[in-house]
Amino acid sequence: MTTAYVLGLDAGNTKTIALIARTDGQVVGGGRAGCGDIYNNVTPAHAFATMETALGEALTQAGLRVADLGAVCGSLAGADWPE
Predict the structure, then answer these.
(1) Which is higher by pLDDT, 12 or 2?
(2) Its pTM surpasses 0.70
(3) Of 13, 26, 30, 62, which has the highest C-beta tally within 10 A?
(4) Cα(38)–Cα(24) distance, rounded to whole angstroms?
(5) Taking Cα atoms as reference points, which of 80, 3, 12, 6 lies closest to residue 41?
(6) Is the pLDDT assigned to residue 1 strictly greater than 50?
(7) Which residue has the higher pLDDT, 10 or 1?
(8) Which pLDDT score, from 0 to 100, does residue 5 have?
(9) What is the CB neighbour count within 10 angstroms for residue 12?
């Protein structure tokens, strides 16, 4: 039987948090990095790199790869801006 994993990613102005959990709710990995807001960062690319850092830490802690994730839920600062 394969265990399904989900990623929760909160990329905000002050910090970015990534948590990976099994579908039963057990958190198996976490990561933290700086500002993940694409509008209040040095560049949008820097914001994405920040998100990748948090994700990488969470994956390492969980002993998983991106391919092991079955779903992602994100809360991304600035994502709803018209531009």
Answers:
(1) 12
(2) yes
(3) 62
(4) 32
(5) 12
(6) no
(7) 10
(8) 97
(9) 16
C-beta of residue 46 within 8 angstroms of C-beta of residue 68: no
Q: Which tokens sit at 77?
A: 């600062």
Helical H segments across the chain, by residue range: 44-62
In the chain, beta strands by DSSP E: 5-11, 16-22, 27-33, 69-76
Q: Could you tell me the pLDDT band of residue 64, with boundaries at 50, 70 and 90?
A: very high
Q: Please give the structure tokens belonging to residue 46.
A: 């820097």
Report the alpha-carbon distance of residue 48 to residue 58 in Å, rounded. Answer: 15
Quick check: 78 and 10 in contact, CB under 8 A? no
For residues 20 and 51, what is the distance between their CA atoms, to the nearest angstrom?
14
